């Protein structure tokens, strides 16, 4: 009885583990602000081509790439919906707010200093 339960649960456990661990980049990028179409696959390619990551991380990214691409394909309608809703990402909103505050002089006394202009004549 116990062996038959183990035999029936083992494939279920293996499949659920595989689906849970696959498409990690796609899941992470879709949880954040909108980053365009196929964000998980493009993030995998970007990180795999970066020299800052070791061989183990690159291997895991290359294994994750087809799963992220498949999940990104399934989520294309959601990406299209997010692209047409007209909202900016949080990063863009904060950057625009900071520029507006700097232009109005609200950043005075906050420790912010404007970058100094470089003189081209002096060395």
Automatic annotation (TrEMBL):
It comes from the Bacteria. The keyword DNA-binding does not apply. Residues 85-103 have a biased composition (Basic and acidic residues). InterPro entries: DUF1375. Keywords: Lipoprotein. The keyword Repeat does not apply. Residues 85-123 are annotated as: Disordered. This is YceK/YidQ family lipoprotein. It comes from Budvicia aquatica. The lineage of its organism: Bacteria, Pseudomonadati, Pseudomonadota, Gammaproteobacteria, Enterobacterales.
